[in-house]
TrEMBL record:
The gene is AIFM1. GO terms for biological process: apoptotic process; mitochondrial respiratory chain complex assembly; positive regulation of programmed cell death. Pfam families: AIF_C (PF14721), Pyr_redox_2 (PF07992). Residues 30-356 form the FAD/NAD(P)-binding domain. It comes from Astatotilapia calliptera. It catalyses: A + NADH + H(+) = AH2 + NAD(+). Keywords: Apoptosis, FAD, Flavoprotein, Mitochondrion, NAD, Oxidoreductase, Transit peptide. The keyword Flavoprotein applies. This is Apoptosis inducing factor mitochondrion associated 1. Residues 411-433 are annotated as: Disordered. One of its GO terms (cellular component) is mitochondrial inner membrane. Transmembrane segments: none annotated. One of its GO terms (molecular function) is protein dimerization activity.
Amino acid sequence: MRILQMIPHLLPSVGFTPASLKLPSHAPYLLIGGGTASFAAARSIRARDPGAKVLIVTDEPDLPYMRPPLSKELWFSDDPSVTETLRFKQWNGKERSIYFQPSSFYINPEELDSVENGGVAVLTGKKVVHMDVRGNKVKLDDDTEISYDKCLIATGGVPRNLQVIERAGEEVMRRTTLFRKIEDFRSLDKVSRNVKSITIIGGGFLGSELACALGRRSTESDLEVIQMFPEKGNMGKVLPEYLSNWTTEKVKKEGVKIISEALVKSVTCKDDKLEIHLKDGRLVKTDHIVTAVGLEPNVDLANSGGLEVDSDFGGYRVNAELQARSNIWVAGDAACFYDIRLGRRRVEHHDHAVVSGRLAGENMTGASKPYWHQSMFWSDLGPDVGYEAIGIVDSSLPTVGVFAKATAKDTPKAATEESGTGIRSESETEDTATSAVASVTPAPVVENKDDYGKGVIFYLRDKVVVGIILWNVFNRMPVARKIIKDGEEHADLNEVAKLFNIHED
């Protein structure tokens, strides 16, 4: 008999971990953290070892869920109860839940020892606070000890805050959202319906997505949405300057007031308003702040576990097989891994969590495979502008962009409608391009040089392509992956761009 832990669509944020629960004293596979990487590992372990007994321990109250819809699709839902159902329509019109699986998929933690064919159990609302690596066991925050044969650390990270906000006092902190979890989505949704002005600090992926989502909502109400960041334009650390400027104009059209080159000096509360003082003297008044200034990898177990933290990238330092020490692997945001093609890296994206979690799970069952299958990531600024990227995309690198005129088919919405795929995690299907075929259609002239409708941007290091952004070009990621895997110098990147068929109507 299976006892349901939780029914997500009825009790989406209440885990079933009563005080009387008899926890298993041993888990053959122990996964610390309840996010995407952990779930991908659990599925991978069970695929290779069908009788495996897997225990996921998470300090969140929820079963494993995907984070991207929290800043993307959920905001575009027409359903007034979306904060409760957590169901959303993908760009292709199909509906799904943000939970990877319903509660019926999991077994009760109490049954893990006795269940004949194994399974995956989730312990919600519990935190691992200590690791005894030599003894192969961990201690929870309630002093429970659980031993393991193989352990995965997939603890993700916590959103960074600005020190000036942390020092600003209780009232400012109370009116500041650090966006990461389901509860943050619910809280910000409620705030956006009850205040006149929201200011998002941060110009990266999360900040820009939330700005567009709230901006879209502001057109239906009198909500003022402000986005400020130190760079000259949106996604300034990722996109070359001309494309960052173009993107900023698109974000403005979504109803967002942009304040660029903004460095926050202090934040105060005056006359029931937050006052953000910038270093150049500008003053911004608002009701609520969302800080989206990056993630601090959670390395709380480094000391007790004797695990090395990377001084450059942060996160637990692991080898190409994602192993930190004997019987311990790390995946997702918290892993600083060695990429055999691109060197040491740490990546904070959904698809990397899928790829690294799956690889860690395979290696926990004896596969000994290195990390080489490049994960991709994507960002959609509304249903009309979207991009997919792979490798190292950093605006400080030299770039070459090849663009063509976009058609109605060149939007995230059209792409997902045509492909029938849902949330874009390309690596869910292990597509690899064996031989790319170049388009023979002649390149049309782009009439407006400032209209970057669709295109390919190559990022170079020592004349070799190390990163690629596909700008409103979809379902071509295997081609990009092959170019990076080959690691060759290319005399003419215009010719390489033809492999993506961007000049086809």
